Input
Amino acid sequence: MLTRRTLLIAGAAGTASLLTSGLPATAQSIPTVEEVLFDEAIPVIGNPKGDVTIAEYYDYQCPFCKRGHPDLLDIVKQDGNIRLVMKDWPIFGDPSVHAARLVLGAGDDYEAAHTALMMTEGRLSRDDVDATLSKAGYDPERLAARADAQSERIQGILDRNMNQARAFGFRGTPVYLVDTRLNYGAMSREAILAAVEQARAG
Output
């Protein structure tokens, strides 16, 4: 079971140990499970009280994040007892930051706006981001105004996610945490299902 104030621990094959990453293993440098998986400012898709938590560090321009997104959402929907914590980590430049800000400013429309951008292909410009959201029924200027009004909250989310990724030594997106087990890179549908099963088995 998850112990919120313990350090994140990596588990089975295909995962890596955070404590062997070469980083100082101190409470100051390694974020806790509480900070990573239970940040109340960060959007959650699926069941907010689910018995398994998946956290995904992603970028809206990452092709591997986009490729795996439909399966991930389908698993969350079909399972019904998974918390999916969306860890925006915009590492591909200004368009990624722009996309993250607009979607984080979407409020109750977060999931739909997020999914619209995840359904795109390839790299994105700011204009591509705006056009995609507009096609999905959103006004980019209104989203930008809402993001500006929530700038402290949104910047705090992005800063915390970035600091966590740096502390853990992440080198790219996507990175998934399934409860306390860390998985680098794209995960197949089968791998996600196996990780969820393993988390429930303890």
Notes: The two ends are 6 Å apart (CA to CA). The chain has a mean pLDDT of 88.
